[in-house]
């Protein structure tokens, strides 16, 4: 394949390392690069100079391929950047971005080892280079944490990472900012040294115009265009200047004069016409490879490399190890959440104040007996007069008033014994209850407790004849579940899935956002890590975290809170892990689509309540009105929660539709989210 690629290269391409022709790039409406032409000769140092904001960084990003150009052609070491099968991005290029692009939790040694792994260096090679670079760049000892280094030291570590694998092309964005003059001179000396072999080429941007005199070629850039390009001495001579700075000033003045004379003349016809260039005359509109061959190369190129995935996973694990507090929090948070749910949601209300108005005075009256069966832990009885009780409930002091008439005992006896009784007897033999129904759960509990107390009272009074006073509806032994099943039992499976899902979203949603912001994503990409590899590495390392979370969650719900599990524990674990993967992949979608932390946080939080409510986790799906019910059923957690309840409480297996449907929907969402995230990340890098 290598031979194929080389055979298709145009004659003369070896003379230059980078060639840009008519390159245009805009950010929205802002044109940053306009018909820019630039040539970096092979084996030379190219100093790219220009004022702040003229587009130098943008151009370098286009050269390494992290930004796409709107028009024109760029060739780097023989092929366009990111061309299938090309080692740019990859080992052939060492890129030092303007942002420091370093992992703060890493030591210097971790940083260089990480990039060494990605470039496929052996640990011995990495070690040798590390020793050289630490000495050469005057770095502190290799176990120093990056976050404890000064700005200048970090910049030197970043430069070290770019130099690590002895690349054929070095792309350095402001490597000498914040570096003392002695070290700056040393860096330039090193660059001069490495290009002497003729195999290494360097493009470097700097604010210190005079230091660029050591470059073989300089390009002077302004407003997204190259004003001049050539050896420093030639540029100075052409403008009769004694310094590069002076030559640059003159060029700017000339450019401004010509610009104002031409007024509205189209861009791209300015002083650039006078610039020198190192053109080899190749027609760049021709593809380098034929389409079918390119497609074959691309197919091989998309296969993820384990080497990169392993390097990224080790990176994540090292970072986790360096933040033990955060790791403990990640492991404990789900347990805290599920414990709070089991303790606080779905149980019976306790200590509810109820006023009792009992007009029977005899201690042997039935009313006293009936009240003695009322569950004291849930219902706290306060004996009051009729007026005090009603005033109390109106003032919100009591949740209900239970009233007994003065003939309750005799009327109730008549009701039980006689076949036909008058309405007055029925009324006088009834317990009268006034409820504050503003809290439905408390009101339902009071009704239930009164029914239970009455049943217990009847049982005690009538013994084996109690069936005569029973309702003509008999609830037999339940087929699934138990008579004591409370609301907590319903909520817990859905809550476990929801906690796993949202923690995974939370852990993932910010991952790429922060790495992109700090330039790390681009740096890894230029080092040869593909979007797919980044995605897979993140997925695998987060799987480790959610596995620990799931084990702790299950230990708590099954052993501490004694939730029943009638089905296969393996199925339960697999379903929860798959839901964790849904959370990770959804987090990856957010992370790849959104640029700033605030928006990523808003997106993750924004879906929390709608999903929780619509997935039937805290209230049955059957209560959702119809058009919304369809939406609910399409969500990732609705069928999954139902499946988990069926496994745990009914003991069902995969042969049941309600179980396999939960797995199928979860897998469908996982695939969709992962593909979507990979596509977005690929389109954006
Ligand atoms: N992501 C972006 N979105 C919108 N505009 C951008 C973005 N990045 C850069 N720009 C704009 O593009 C222009 C060129 O920026 P660039 O960073 O390429 O300049 P530069 O020459 O490298 O400057 P400096 O020397 O200060 O680093 C600037 O006006 C900048 O505001």
Descriptive report:
This protein is of the alpha/beta class and 685 residues long. It folds into four domains: 222 residues, Rossmann fold (3-Layer(aba) Sandwich), CATH 3.40.50.300; 66 residues, no CATH class; 232 residues, no CATH class; 118 residues, 3-Layer(aba) Sandwich (D-Maltodextrin-Binding Protein, domain 2), CATH 3.40.190. Helix content is 52%, strand content 12%. The protein is built from 26 helices and 13 strands. The strands form three sheets. The protein has a six-stranded mixed β-sheet with strand order 5-6-7-3-8-9, sandwiched between helices. Helix 17 packs antiparallel against helix 20 and helix 21 packs parallel to helix 26. 40% of the residues are buried. The N terminus is likely disordered. It binds adenosine-5'-triphosphate. The site of adenosine-5'-triphosphate has 12 residues, from strand 2 and helix 2.
Keywords summarizing the entry:
single chain; 685 residues; alpha/beta; 4 domains; 4-stranded mixed β-sheet; 52% helix; elongated; binds adenosine-5'-triphosphate
In short:
With 685 residues, the protein is of the alpha/beta class. It has 26 helices and 13 strands. The site of adenosine-5'-triphosphate has 12 residues, from strand 2 and helix 2.
List the helices and strands and how they pair.
Blueprint: H1 2-7, E1 16-27, E2 30-41, E3 45-49, H2 56-64, E4 71-76, E5 93-96, H3 108-118, H4 123-136, H5 151-163, E6 169-173, H6 181-195, E7 201-205, E8 217-222, E9 225-230, H7 232-238, H8 244-262, H9 291-301, H10 306-322, H11 324-344, E10 352-358, H12 366-372, E11 379-383, H13 386-394, E12 400-404, H14 408-417, H15 423-428, E13 432-435, H16 440-462, H17 487-509, H18 511-517, H19 520-526, H20 531-560, H21 569-593, H22 597-606, H23 608-614, H24 626-634, H25 638-650, H26 657-684
Parallel strand pairs: 3-7, 3-8, 5-6, 6-7, 10-11, 10-12
Antiparallel strand pairs: 1-2, 1-4, 8-9, 12-13
Helix pairs in contact: 3-4, 3-10, 10-20, 11-17, 11-20, 12-16, 17-20, 17-21, 17-25, 20-21, 21-25, 21-26, 25-26
Adenosine-5'-triphosphate (ATP) is lined by residues 27, 30, 32, 50, 52-58, 98.
Biased composition (Polar residues): 262-279
GO molecular function, one term: ATP binding
Subcellular location: Membrane
């Amino acid at each position: 394949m290598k031979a194929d690629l080389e055979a298709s290269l145009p004659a003369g391409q070896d003379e230059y390392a980078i060639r840009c022709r008519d390159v245009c790039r805009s950010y929205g409406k802002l044109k940053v690069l306009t018909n820019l032409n630039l040539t970096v000769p092979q084996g030379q140092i190219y100093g790219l100079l220009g004022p702040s904001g003229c587009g130098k960084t943008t151009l370098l990003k286009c050269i390494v391929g992290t930004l796409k150009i709107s028009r024109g052609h760029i060739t780097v070491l023989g092929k366009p950047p990111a061309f299938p099968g090309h080692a740019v991005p990859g080992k052939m290029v060492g890129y030092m971005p303007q942002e420091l692009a370093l992992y703060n939790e890493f030591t210097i040694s971790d940083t260089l080892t990480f990039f060494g792994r990605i470039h496929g260096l052996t640990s011995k090679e990495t070690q040798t280079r590390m020793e050289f670079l630490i000495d050469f760049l005057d770095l502190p000892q290799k176990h120093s944490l990056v976050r404890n280094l000064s700005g200048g030291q970090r910049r030197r570590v970043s430069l070290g990472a770019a130099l690590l694998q002895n690349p054929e092309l070095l792309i350095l964005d402001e490597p000498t900012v914040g570096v003392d003059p002695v070290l700056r001179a040393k860096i330039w000396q090193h660059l001069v040294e490495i290009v002497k072999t003729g195999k290494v080429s360097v493009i470097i941007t700097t604010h210190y115009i005079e230091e660029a005199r050591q470059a073989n070629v300089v390009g002077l850039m302004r407003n997204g265009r190259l004003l001049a390009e050539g050896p420093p001495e030639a540029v100075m001579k052409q403008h009769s200047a004694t310094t590069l700075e002076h030559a640059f000033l003159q060029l700017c003045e000339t450019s401004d004069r010509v610009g104002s004379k031409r007024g509205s003349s189209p861009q791209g016809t300015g002083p650039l016409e006078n610039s020198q260039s190192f053109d080899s005359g190749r027609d760049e509109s021709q593809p380098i490879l034929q389409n079918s061959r390119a497609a074959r190369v691309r197919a091989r190129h998309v296969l993820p490399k384990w080497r990169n995935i392993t390097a990224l996973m080790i990176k994540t694990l090292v970072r986790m190890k360096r933040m033990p507090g955060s790791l403990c929090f990640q492991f404990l948070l789900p347990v805290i959440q599920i414990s709070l749910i089991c303790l606080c949601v779905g149980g019976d209300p306790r200590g509810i104040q109820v006023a009792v108005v009992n007009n029977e005075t005899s201690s042997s009256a039935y009313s006293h007996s009936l009240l003695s069966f009322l569950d004291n832990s849930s219902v706290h009885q306060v004996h009051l007069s009729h007026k005090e009780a009603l005033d109390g409930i109106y003032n919100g002091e009591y949740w209900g008033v239970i009233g007994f008439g003065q003939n309750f005992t005799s009327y109730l006896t008549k009701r039980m014994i006689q076949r036909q009784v008058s309405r007055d007897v029925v009324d006088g033999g009834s317990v009268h209850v006034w409820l504050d129904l503003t809290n439905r759960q408390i009101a339902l509990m009071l009704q239930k407790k009164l029914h239970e107390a009455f049943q217990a009272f009847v049982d005690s009074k009538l013994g084996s004849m109690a069936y005569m006073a029973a309702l003509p509806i008999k609830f037999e032994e339940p087929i699934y579940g138990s008579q004591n099943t409370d609301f907590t039992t319903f909520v817990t499976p859905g809550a476990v899935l929801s906690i796993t899902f949202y923690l995974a979203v939370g852990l993932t949603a910010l991952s790429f956002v922060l790495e992109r912001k700090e330039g790390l994503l681009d740096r890894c990409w230029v080092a040869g890590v593909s979007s797919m590899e980044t995605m897979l590495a993140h997925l695998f390392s987060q799987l480790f975290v959610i596995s620990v979370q799931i084990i702790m969650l299950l230990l708590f719900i099954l052993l501490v809170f004694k939730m029943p599990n009638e089905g296969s524990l393996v199925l339960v674990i697999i379903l929860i892990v798959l839901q964790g993967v849904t959370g990770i992949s959804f987090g990856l979608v957010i992370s790849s689509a959104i640029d700033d932390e605030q928006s990523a946080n808003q997106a993750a939080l924004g879906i929390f309540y709608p999903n929780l409510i619509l997935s039937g986790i805290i209230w049955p799906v059957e209560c959702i009105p119809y058009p919304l019910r369809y939406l609910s059923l399409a969500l990732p957690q609705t069928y999954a929660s139902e499946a988990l309840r069926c496994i745990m409480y009914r003991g069902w297996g995969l042969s049941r539709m309600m179980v396999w449907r939960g797995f199928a929907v979860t897998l469908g969402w996982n695939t969709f989210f992962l593909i979507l995230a990979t596509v977005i990340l690929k389109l954006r890098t």
